Amino acid sequence: MTVPPRPTPPAGPEHTPARHGPSGADDPERVLGAIGSSWHWALATALATLLPGILILVWPDETLHILAVIIGIYLLLAGFFRFIMAFGPESHGERITRLLLAVLFVLAGVLCLRNPLQTIAALSLIVGVTWLVSGMVTVYLAVAAKGLPHRGILFGAGALGVAAGIVVLALPTESAVVLTRLLGLWLVLLGLLEVGVAFTLRAGLSRAAKDRGLTF
């Protein structure tokens, strides 16, 4: 979000108590906007997706009994990072849409952690619906945000999320090991694509900073 400079308050003792720190430091929206515009949050989201996937693929048998915990933590972290990113520049997406998506991830994470011993069928339903809705929203943002550089990468990440959700929802859940490895594989693929999105965002922010004559 491009934040205009904060107007200088009029001089006078009645305005002195309102200044609690540096310009903008007492405005939560300005602070979140400055933080959310950083590409590092997109990279953190990618790592929060990629690392659990690698863990599940490397130790499928060991992680089977704590699969819901791993997936729950992944969803909570992804939801938190997406919440922060929702306060970034609004030119590349709608804030309300991104906030709703962040809430979806957090609620799904809470459902996974609320009952770690739930059945594989219930876990696959939670993850499948989350990926499906998230992928559809990501595809929408990629199509609607005309000024977004390299929209193809974001569109690909959204399409992969849609495919992952459909496959997880349609796959029979009799085999917990098969579903565990499938979830791990999808997490790795989604994480790699999200890494590409993060570095694409970095390049876009760097280009914008150079156009404004700033050092990125």
Brief digest:
This protein is an all-alpha fold and 216 residues long. Helix content is 70%, strand content 0%.
Molecular structure report:
The protein is mostly helical and 216 residues long. It has one domain (35-211). The chain contains eight helices and no strands. Helix 4 packs antiparallel against helix 5 (95-114).
Jot down its keywords.
216 residues, 8 helices, disordered N terminus, single chain, transmembrane helix, mainly alpha, HdeD family acid-resistance protein, 70% helix, DUF308_memb, transmembrane
Task: Annotate the secondary structure layout.
Blueprint (H helix, E strand, L loop, with lengths): L27 H9 L3 H19 L1 H4 L3 H19 L9 H20 L5 H25 L6 H20 L5 H36 L5
Helix pairs in contact: 2-4, 2-8, 4-5, 5-6, 6-7, 7-8
Helix and strand pattern:
HHHHHHHH
Number of strands: 0
What coarse outline follows from CA principal-axis ratios?
elongated
Name the beta content range: under 5%
What's the N-to-C terminus distance?
16 Å
The description of the largest β-sheet is:
none
Mean pLDDT: 76
Number of domains: 1
Q: What share of residues is helical?
A: over 70%
Low-confidence stretches: 1-24
Tally of individual helices: 8
Radius of gyration: 20 Å
The structure class reads: mainly alpha
